[in-house]
Amino acid sequence: MNDILTTRGLTMRFGGVTAVDNVDFNLRDGELRCLLGPNGAGKSTFFKCLTGQLTPTEGNVTFAGQDLTGAHTHRIVNLGVGIKTQVPNVFDGITAYENVRLSARRKHLKPLARELTMTTLERCGITHLARREVGLLSHGQRQLVELAMVLAGEPKLILLDEPAAGMTGDERDRLAQLVLESARSAAVVVVEHDMAFIRQIAKFVTVFNRGAIFREAMIDDIMQDREVQEIYLGKQANAA
Ligand SMILES: Nc1ncnc2c1ncn2[C@@H]1O[C@H](COP(=O)(O)OP(=O)(O)OP(=O)(O)O)[C@@H](O)[C@H]1O
User: Fold this and answer.
1) Which domain of life is it from (predicted)?
2) Which of these, 7, 49, 95, 130, is most buried using a 10 Å CB contact count?
3) Is the pLDDT of residue 166 over 70?
4) Is 139:130 a contact under the CB 8 Å cutoff?
5) Ligand 1 pocket check: which of 43, 207, 209 to mutate, most ligand atoms within 8 Å of Cβ?
6) Cross-strand bridge partners of residue 205
7) What is the span of the domain harbouring residue 73?
8) CATH of the domain at 70
9) For residue 240, is pLDDT > 70?
């Protein structure tokens, strides 16, 4: 299968700090990949270079054969990438339904957009929140609304940064189910800390450390990997 996303020599420096260091990353079409690593490993910075939130200092990002290095987030989304950042990117003053419909309307005329909105709300288990103003919802509920917005855009690639943050156990289970389901029709990259959630969804994972790819393997092998355990413990010991 072809690669839908690649980076070559991707590097991001902030002054003297090299947050992402010469990363070559490959994601196959339809693949679900989790990005792990201790705090400060460079996962979020790498993610932001993919989404257009940051312009890398060096290297390039290719999506579906197109060079997207330094492209605006708007263009990246229009090309078929669904992005969920750490802070829910929703419109607080309107309802969940209206938020999701805005996303569905990007590709579809009104009747189809309405139908897609309803099915997506249902898929995400938030039909009961359709008429609620999003600014009044809990953090976990807002995360699900944002995910519904991403899915209603029918992306070819979905990028999720810490999607399980602030969720209840039930919301997290729903999210895990949704991510697995979404991975049947799109490639998915998930940056996440929540190990319970990772265990629910992860197959092949990429572990970052000090800005570089430290290990790539199946999650069960990663969990047994002593060097991976050490980089996590090392960070905790340093922080203590
Ligand atoms: N805007 C910035 N300016 C300066 N340094 C930054 C900036 N953003 C990130 N860094 C630094 O880059 C390194 C990587 O940070 P990053 O947030 O990408 O790691 P992470 O793996 O996502 O960590 P976490 O899991 O805690 O979110 C850290 O040393 C961090 O302090």
Assistant:
1) Bacteria
2) 49
3) yes
4) no
5) 43
6) 34, 217
7) 1-78+195-240
8) 3.40.50.300
9) no
Q: Which atom of ligand 1 is nearest to the CA of 208?
A: 21
Which ligand 1 atom sits closest to the C-alpha of 193?
A: 25
Which tokens go with 201?
């969804």
Please tell me the pTM assigned to this model.
Answer: 0.91
Per DSSP (E only), the strands in 137-211 are: 157-161, 187-191, 204-209
Burial class (CB in 10 A: 0-12, 13-18, 19+), 124: buried
CB atoms within 10 A of CB 234: 12
> How far is Cα 131 from Cα 98, in angstroms, rounded to an integer?
8
Average of pLDDT values for 99-115? 91
Please tell me if the CB atom of residue 153 comes closer than 6 angstroms to any atom of ligand 1: no
C-alpha distances (whole Å) from 148 to each of 5, 105, 153 are 22, 13, 9
Count: domains in the chain? 1
For residue 45, give the ligand 1 atom closest to its CA.
18
Which residues lie below 8 Å from residue 220, measured CB to CB, with a gap of 6+?
A: none
Q: Bridge partners of 189?
A: 33, 159
**Computed from CA positions of residues 97, 98, 100, 104, in that sequence, does the dihedral angle turn out positive or negative?**
positive
Asked whether 44 lines ligand 1 (CB < 6 A), one says yes
Residue 44 lies in a domain: yes
Both tokens assigned to 185: 């029709």
The per-residue pLDDT for 235 is 56
* Ligand 1 pocket residue status of 84, Cβ below 6 Å: no
Distance CA(47)–CA(72), nearest Å, equals 14
Q: Which residue has the least CA distance to atom 10 on ligand 1?
A: 19
Distance (Å, whole) CA 49 – CA 60: 9
